[in-house]
Amino acid sequence: MRAARRRGCMRVSPWKGRCQPRLGRGCYRLHFGIAGEMKPVTLPECIIRCANWSTHQPILGSMPTDPGPVPPAKPAATRSRASRPRSGTYTVHDVARMAGVSSVTVSRYFNEPQKVSEALRTRLAQVIEQTGYVPNQVARILATNQGGVVGAVMQNVTSPTFADMVRGMMDVAERNDLQLLLANSHFSRDSEARALRTFAGWHPRALILTRGDHSPESDALLARLKVPIVEAWEVHAGRPFHQVGFSQQVVGRMLAEHFVGQGALRIRFVLNGAVEDGRATRRSEGYAQAMHDAGLVPDVWRARASDDVGAAREAMAALAAMPPGRRPRAVIFANDNMAITAILCAHSHGLAIPGDLAVAGFGDAPLAAVTTPSLTTVRPDPYAIGSRAMEIVVASLHASTASAGPQVQEIACDLVIRESSRVVR
Questions:
Q1: Is the keyword Transcription in the record (predicted)?
Q2: Position 267 pLDDT exceeds 70
Q3: Which end of the chain is more exposed for a tag (fewer CB within 10 A), N or C?
């Protein structure tokens, strides 16, 4: 016995001074809980029934055929019963233990199920259904470099225009095993910076941003991230990232030329009070350049109210207070929400559209075609912008080598001429 103890193969039983094999954890369970039995198993039975019998081989010749009775241990939990771990969340290791497989097999079940036998797939499916196990997606991304999260920071997620853009991104993402996470910056560069810091903690595969004028903090963070970055919605010259969209200046010029071509001499561009909405400001810059080119004086007017409805009502009150001989003959509103509000409240201010005031907007909102009069506007293609932005992400993730430089893809807008913009002479 002493020799056996020196070899680390025996231990003294506290019961009757007998010796018994030093067993591994799994073997110990088999000894005292095989098939629900509540009685000890003798060593010869161990040789036949214990999967770990080879650990006892060196001492079989010196061991008594029956080491004697030992107190029964509690039976091990069977695979059919799931005991919730202390953390309250099952891990891949818990699922592997309960299914009697390795954690690698569990991971393969999710990532490459065709490489797992049908019997194991059935067993794992039962355990996963029982436990409600959900794979750790961050761990999966880091381990496999497949799938993953694409973060998108929107300027205004409540806008119908941006809703179509999100739909385009999601359709492409789902076809390529990518998940889209959204953040809303409310046109604020500081809010965008906070969203980018949060996304960075998720280890995103790529980022899609709907503005190109970021804060210095955001620019520094984006420069450090080694992931594809797409600026979607508008294009700027000299940007270091992929771009998809259109030129805001071109849109502003398009609207101004529409009124200049009808002979209007006094044309106003109305902005709301949200000074951080640089996109509308850039449209006003395109309008101003077109006015200069036509030999006319630009008239950019900004409301105090930052919301579209309040800004439009404020603008209409100011226009109604002007003498007819000095009042602008046409007004370009920064977006359709403002233009539609102007049409709805014009009568209360004693103004007729388009008789006294021709009006146009931007965005082609759903109500633009059904107002009276119907609204002239510029129609972007947000679905195409969103889907193309995500396609660039997918192509960048699958590229074997870095591309020569950032891609710039322009998606043209359409001028939709309706009743509201007719200049009455």
A1: yes
A2: yes
A3: C
